[in-house]
Amino acid sequence: MATILVLHGPNLNLLGTREPEIYGTVSLDDINQRLTELSISAGHHLLALQSNAEYELVERIHDARNEGINFILFNPAAFTHTSVALRDALLAVAIPFIEVHLSNIHDREAFREQSYFADIAVGTISGFGATSYELALNAALSQLNQNSQ
Ligand code: DQA
């Protein structure tokens, strides 16, 4: 059994009501619930945290190593485009992760094109709304299966 951590960055607590034309109408609780159900069906354990504070996400990533977290799904939200600190935290713990975005960050403002995570992630899933998280979970499960063989 693996433990997967899903991390959500700033403003994602407002999902459902935040710019629904871009981010959809599904709430963060619904997304976490769905990921939990899918993880349980696959025989794994899922933990989730949303924070608007960069340092809380950094500390959660540090703790993940001590807890033996096997895989991280990470939507860094606006920190995608700004955070060397979160990039360095992920490099420090060396836990494989997938970068997740609800919107297609390559089809928006130019500043969203830059990601501090894309080159160190296993991969990036962007543009499928709440389904991006499910696709990322499936990709993580397939990675975990490959690594356990
Ligand atoms: C986002 C895209 C980011 O550019 C933005 O700052 C977010 C959400 C997404 O999921 O589409 O807050 O990460």
Overall description:
- The mean pLDDT is 97.
- This protein starts with a strand and ends with a helix.
- Helices cover 40% and strands 17% of the residues.
- With 149 residues, the protein is α/β, with parallel strands linked by helices.
- It has five helices and five strands, in the order E-H-H-E-H-E-H-E-E-H.
- Strand 3, helix 4 (84-93) and strand 4 (97-101) form a beta-alpha-beta unit.
- The relative contact order is 0.19.
- Helix 3 runs parallel beside helix 4 (84-93).
- Bound molecules: 1,3,4-trihydroxy-5-OXO-cyclohexanecarboxylic acid.
- 1,3,4-trihydroxy-5-OXO-cyclohexanecarboxylic acid binds at residues 11, 75, 77-78, 80, 101-103, 105, 112.
- Residues 11, 75, 77-78, 80, 101-103, 105, 112 line the site of 1,3,4-trihydroxy-5-OXO-cyclohexanecarboxylic acid.
SSE string: EHHEHEHEEH
The termini sit apart by: 13 Å
Low-confidence stretches: none
- Based on CA inertia axes, which overall geometry fits? globular
**Helix/strand structural class:** alpha/beta
The hetero molecules present are: 1,3,4-trihydroxy-5-OXO-cyclohexanecarboxylic acid
Given the structure, what is the number of helices? 5
Using only C-alpha atoms, the radius of gyration works out to 14 Å
> What is the number of E strands?
5
Largest sheet strand order: 2-1-3-4-5
How many strands, which pairing sense, and closed or not: the largest β-sheet?
A: 5 strands, parallel
